[in-house]
Amino acid sequence: SRAPIIAIDGPAGAGKSTVARLVAHQLGLLYLDTGAMYRALTWYVLEQGTDPQDPVAVAELLPHCQIRLTAQVVQDDQPQPSEVWVNDRPVTQAIRSAEVTAQVSTVAAQAAVRQRLVQQQQQYGQQGGVVADGRDIGTQVFPQAELKIFLTASVAERAQRRQRDLQALEQPVPELEVLAETIRERDRKDSTRAISPLRQAKDAIEVSTDALTIEQVVDQITALYRQTV
Ligand code: C5P
Question: Taking the mean position of all CA atoms in its chain, how far away is CA 135?
């Protein structure tokens, strides 16, 4: 029998990765950022000059793209992103670019891409003891997860958080409405695609984070975990 799995799904910018990382830290579990894998592949597609809208060309790249990421025990309580490599090139920062973010939903909608990355994710989770975040973790990747969370926030709140993140990174800060539109567009693509669209699993618990601090969200999830396991 394997150790427990926590699945955290939800729309773009709801704070899944920050929360998942902190929950993993508190419970001594591994953290798996599945969005980073779709981003890494999208980075490679763009780097190769391949059209992200061409599923045949993208599928041909798959055998040449080895994605590696630290699904490590989170050592400290600072929400640092996972480190990611494509064919041994470090792409941790590059996969967060606006170009990758704009194309990732197109690549992630493709059948061959999902088949390949879901398989890799399930391998990471074979022994359990994992907190995984994404769009289809509770519905497709780990449908047997012991605890499923659907993390949400209003578009306005998510756009504001994104502005604050960019400010903290000293990066250019677009207008709120521009950020809100980018978020809406990615949610629309992710929830209307044919394969594994973003959906709340039937047995997932919705946690709406608008009025909560990160710490409060993390406390809720760790409390739910302790009740479940
Ligand atoms: O979580 P993050 O925003 O980094 O994910 C980037 C994109 O990767 C999502 O917008 C979605 O298109 C795709 N994704 C997915 N399934 C997952 C995780 C991410 O389709 N499990």
Answer: 7
**99 vs 132: CA distance, rounded Å:** 24
Backbone angle region of 130, left / alpha / beta, with phi > 0 → left and psi within -120 to 50 → alpha? beta
Lookup result for tokens 């699904």? 71
Residue 229's pLDDT is what?
82
What's the confidence (pLDDT) of residue 79?
A: 62
pTM: 0.95
Helix (H, G, I), strand (E, B) or coil at 157: helix
83's tokens:
């480190």
Contact criterion met (CB below 8 Å) for 159 and 12:
no
Asked if the interface predicted TM-score (ipTM) of this complex is over 0.95, the answer is yes
Task: Indicate the SS3 state at residue 7.
Answer: strand
Instruction: Please list every protein residue whose CB sits less than 6 Å from any atom of ligand 1.
Output: 12, 34-35, 38-39, 104-105, 108, 134-137, 186, 190
Cα–Cα distance for residue pair 9/25, rounded to 1 Å? 18
| Partner residues linked to 134 by β-bridges | 9
- At a CB cut-off of 8 Å and minimum separation 6, what does 95 contact? 36, 39, 40, 42, 43, 84
Alpha helices in 28-76 (DSSP H): 34-47, 55-61
Q: Which atom of ligand 1 has the smallest separation from the CA of 16?
A: 1
- Residue length, the chain? 229
Ligand 1, atom 20, lies closest to the CA of: 108
What is the structure's pLDDT at 1?
76
> Model confidence over 110-153: pLDDT tens digits?
999 999 999 999 999 999 999 999 999 999 999 999 999 999 99
